[in-house]
């Protein structure tokens, strides 16, 4: 993870964006899991993560194995917990405010 974080920080520095390069994740493997199990995991994950996120704080994006479905679940849980409709996840579906320029994570 340290190498991935450094790579992201380096890319951001080259573009002049005032962004860091934090990385994180889980060891949840969605293979063989039902849609309900994936949704419950995503909502639980966001319940623990939401206090560290915000439009001016940290804006995570999906990575390997995380697509619009998972980000949509996470974004829905974020909205339920904070009662805010702001851009705090990159790669979410367009139906919930995602960007046409970034359809997948």
Question: Explain this structure to me?
Answer:
This protein has 105 residues and is mainly α. Helix 2 (35-49) crosses helix 3 (68-82). The protein has three helices and no strands. It is globular.
Rounded to the nearest angstrom, the distance between the terminal CA atoms is: 17 Å
Q: Encode the helix/strand succession as letters.
A: HHH
Number of helical elements? 3
Number of strands: 0
Short description:
This protein has 105 residues and is an all-alpha fold. It is built from 3 helices and no strands.
Layout of strands and helices, then pairs:
Elements lengths: L1 H14 L19 H15 L18 H15 L23
Notable traits:
3 helices; mainly alpha
